[in-house]
Amino acid sequence: MPHHILAEPGDVAPVAILVGDPGRATQISTLLQSARRYNEHRGLLGYTGLFEGARISAQTTGMGGPSAAIVLEELAQLGVRTVIRAGTCGAIGKHVGVLDLVVATAAVPVDGTTRQYLNSDPFAPVADFAVTTALVEAAAASGRPSHTGLLVSEDAFYRQADDWQRWRERGALAVEMEASTVFTVALLRGLRAGCVCLVVNDTSHPGTWHPADTRREAEDALVRVALQAAKHLAA
Questions:
Q1: What is the pLDDT of residue 160?
Q2: How does residue 1 score in pLDDT terms, banded at 50, 70 and 90?
Q3: What is the DSSP string of 42-75?
Q4: Are strands 82-91 and 192-202 parallel, antiparallel or unpaired?
Q5: pTM of the model
Q6: Domain coverage including residue 185
Q7: What is the SS3 assignment for 202?
């Protein structure tokens, strides 16, 4: 039995949406029929229910790669085979706007968790093609502006980086904290993984940060895109 997600095999669906914020897991649970909470230990809220006939779980990971890796390892033990990270990010790309959606094809592993898993070997943490395709299609159907491409995953949320231009020139669209770890652990454990993020700030303009009470509609679009993709993948 896992140490942090106190659940049994069968409690968690084969397809799970991963969210950093436990409040977002609860938000997703309100969109599921017959939702049941299978974990609350350590604040890692997890729910399983039906979305338009498909059995789907929503699982909190907490913030950052170390916590996300623990959760994903334990979900794999519990029988999860496909995961979608639905989170937030900061825009790097010039044409990526605040409150747009970004679907990741891969993530630059600047974080420490990925480095430890790989013993610092060169590696390309990539998303699964089928999961990415489902997310791209769901994002397009949502009507919200969306972009598909490269993320940067790092650890230091409040770091005032001076290298965003460098990553911009290399084609990165946005920065966040978990995708590289999620893709790496998924590849190592034989899982399918994808990621969709809502842009909540522009790294070049600190004053563009959107507080939670002004982005509810966009966050609702984020979770519905993840749910639609999860439904397709569950089928």
A1: 67
A2: confident
A3: GG--EEEEEETTEEEEEEE--SSHHHHHHHHHHH
A4: parallel
A5: 0.96
A6: 15-234
A7: strand
Residues in the chain: 235
- Work out how many domains the chain is built from and give that number: 1
Angstrom CA distances, 27 to 19, 24, 49, 74, 230, stand at 10, 5, 13, 22, 16
User: Residue 5 domain-assigned?
Assistant: no
User: Which 3 state secondary structure label does DSSP give 169?
Assistant: helix
* pLDDT, mean of residues 24-37: 97
What does pLDDT average to over the chain?
Answer: 95
> What CATH code is carried by the domain that includes residue 186?
3.40.50.1580
Residue 18 contacts residue 71 (beta carbons within 8 Å): yes
Residue 158 belongs to some domain of the structure: yes
Q: Which residue has the tokens 């979770």?
A: 223
Single out the residue of 183, 51, 198 nearest to residue 129, CA to CA: 183
Give the alpha-carbon dihedral of 131, 94, 219, 42, to 10 degrees. 70
Asked whether residue 3 is assigned to any structural domain, the reply reads no
C-alpha to C-alpha distance for 68 and 47, rounded to whole angstroms: 17
Q: What is the pLDDT of residues 102-152, one digit of tens each?
A: 999 999 999 999 999 999 999 999 999 999 999 999 999 999 999 999 999
Strand stretches in the chain, DSSP E:
15-19, 33-39, 46-51, 54-60, 82-91, 101-109, 146-153, 172-176, 192-202
Report pLDDT digits (tens) over 193-233.
Answer: 999 999 999 988 766 777 777 788 999 999 999 999 999 99
Q: 54 in a domain, yes or no?
A: yes
